[in-house]
C-alpha cells in the first residue's frame, strides 16, 4: 500500500495507517542494516537533494546513509558554498536545483512552513527534516519506532516529553504521532517552557518531574535550546538540572524502571546526567540506528510512488 501523500511535511495530518506503514517498513530495512552488505538497489537511478539551511549532525548523516543504503544518488547542498551567499533567493535556488532533474528533496530550514512552500515550487517529493519550531516528523517516527521495538507496542503506552516544549519541533511531532497511534502523551517542564494552549492537543501537563516519572512508561528528554534563547526561561542551568534533570538518584527515588529517550544532541549535566545518558534505562544510540531504518522507509515509500 502506498502512502496517502506525495510528501512528508509533518505528522499533524498524517493518518494512522501511514504511520503504521512507515514503522512496519522500517522493520524490514532494519534487517538490511544488520547484513554484511548494507545496501539494496531499491532507489537506484533516483536523485535526492539534502537541502540543509541549518546545522545538523544526526539528521543529515542519517538521511545520507539512508539514501546510500537504498542506492539513490545523494546530493548535499551547503548554504555557505552556494549562490545563496551571493544573494540568490530561496525560490531561485530551488528552481535551479529542480531543473537538474531531481526526484526528492530533504529540507531543514529555520523558517516554519518551508517544506510546504517547497511543494508549491517544484514537483519533487518533499521530506521535512525540521522546519523552525514547527515539526520534525522523521525524528518523531524514529522515537515511536524505538519505543515500539523496546516495549512491543505504542497503544496505551504512557509517554512524557520533558523539557523545552515551547521551542521544540520534536515535541510537536511526537505529540501528533503518538496521539494518532493511540499512546497517552504528557509534557513536563517549567511553566515558562510549556505553551499555554498545550492541553488543547489532548496532552496532560506535569510541572513536577517526580510525578511525571511515577506516572509514565517513557521519558523523551529534550535538549534546552540555548540557540533559541531558551535559557532565559529559568534562572540558571544548574537550577534547571536540580528541578528537572534526569539523574540516577531521581530514578531510584521513584523506583521506576522507565525507558529514557533523547533526540540529541545531549547537554550532559543539564537535562540529563552522564550516568543516565550512558546507563541501562536509555536507548539513545538505538534511536540513532533506528533513524536510518525509518528514513530508509520514508524515502522508499515516497521514492517508489509515481
- CATH homologous superfamily designation of the largest domain: Aspartate/ornithine carbamoyltransferase
Q: Give the terminus-to-terminus CA distance.
A: 13 Å
The SS-based structural class is alpha/beta
Mean pLDDT: 93
Number of strands: 9
Spatial shape: globular
Q: Any guess at the CATH architecture of the largest domain?
A: 3-Layer(aba) Sandwich
Give the class-level CATH name of the largest domain: Alpha Beta
Q: How many independent structural domains? A: 2
Keywords:
single chain, 306 residues, alpha/beta, Rossmann fold, 2 domains, 5-stranded parallel β-sheet, globular
Structural features, described:
The protein is of the alpha/beta class and 306 residues long. The protein is 40% helix and 15% strand. It has helices spanning 16-33, 58-69, 90-98, 114-121, 137-151, 169-181, 209-215, 237-244, 248-254, 274-277, 284-303; strands at 47-52, 73-78, 104-109, 125-131, 158-162, 184-188, 204-206, 218-221, 259-261. The chain is globular, with a radius of gyration of 19 Å. The model has no long low-confidence stretch (mean pLDDT 93).
Layout: helices, strands, pairs:
Blueprint: H1 16-33, E1 47-52, H2 58-69, E2 73-78, H3 90-98, E3 104-109, H4 114-121, E4 125-131, H5 137-151, E5 158-162, H6 169-181, E6 184-188, E7 204-206, H7 209-215, E8 218-221, H8 237-244, H9 248-254, E9 259-261, H10 274-277, H11 284-303
Parallel strand pairs: 1-2, 1-3, 3-4, 5-6, 5-8, 6-7, 8-9
Helix pairs in contact: 1-5, 1-11, 2-11, 5-6, 5-11
